[in-house]
Amino acid sequence: MINDKKIAVVVPCYNEEKQIAGVINTMPEFVDFIIVVDDASTDKTYEIIKDIASKNKKITFLHHKNNSGVGSAISTGYKTALEIGADVTAVMAGDGQMDPADLYNVVIPVISGTADYCKGNRFFYLKGIERIP
Fold first, then answer.
1. What contacts 14, CB < 8 A, 6 or more positions away?
2. What is the Cα–Cα distance from 64 to 59, expressed in whole angstroms?
3. Closest C-alpha to 81, from 31, 128, 35
4. What values do phi and psi take at 45, rounded to 5?
5. pLDDT tens for the chain, residues 1 to 133
6. Which domains occur in the chain, in start order?
7. What's the chain look like in SS3?
8. Spatial contact of 103 and 31, defined as CB atoms under 8 Å apart
9. CA distances from 87 to 30, 42, 70, 110 (A)
10. Are 3 and 35 in contact (CB under 8 A)?
């Protein structure tokens, strides 16, 4: 929570068994809701998320039975964020391409009312390109 605003992060994922735990476990402390949407992964992503979610009350774990794409996973996450009362919602990919340390700077313009929407660029620092699987 920042300035009495509840923060949700939607984490869409598909076949991210190698990255998803790191994404979830490095989520900043100010995040109130971590909404992980598994888009019908065929690897062990589902099992990994289920295990982590059983130990972390901030996590809402959703599972698509059929792969419908990242846009659909994000939409599912946004709808859930609204239902559970999030004031501000961000998206962080399940593959670890986005640095959780940047999240504060992405949400603060929305929280402060200086922006209605804010989008980060994972390629702002060229080192980010090296992290792409």
1. 38, 39, 40, 41, 45, 67, 70, 73, 94
2. 16
3. 35
4. -55, -50
5. 988 999 999 999 999 999 999 999 999 999 999 999 999 999 999 999 999 999 999 999 999 999 999 999 999 999 999 999 999 999 999 988 888 888 999 999 999 999 998 887 766 656 655 655 5
6. 7-130 (3.90.550.10)
7. CECCECEEEEEEECCCCCCHHHHHHCCCCCCCEEEEEECCCCCCHHHHHHHHHCCCCCEEEEECCCCCCHHHHHHHHHHHHHHHCCCEEEECCCCCCCCHHHHHHHHHHHHCCCCCCCCCCCCCCCHHHHCCC
8. yes
9. 13, 33, 22, 10
10. no
Give CA–CA dist 31/50, Å, rounded: 19
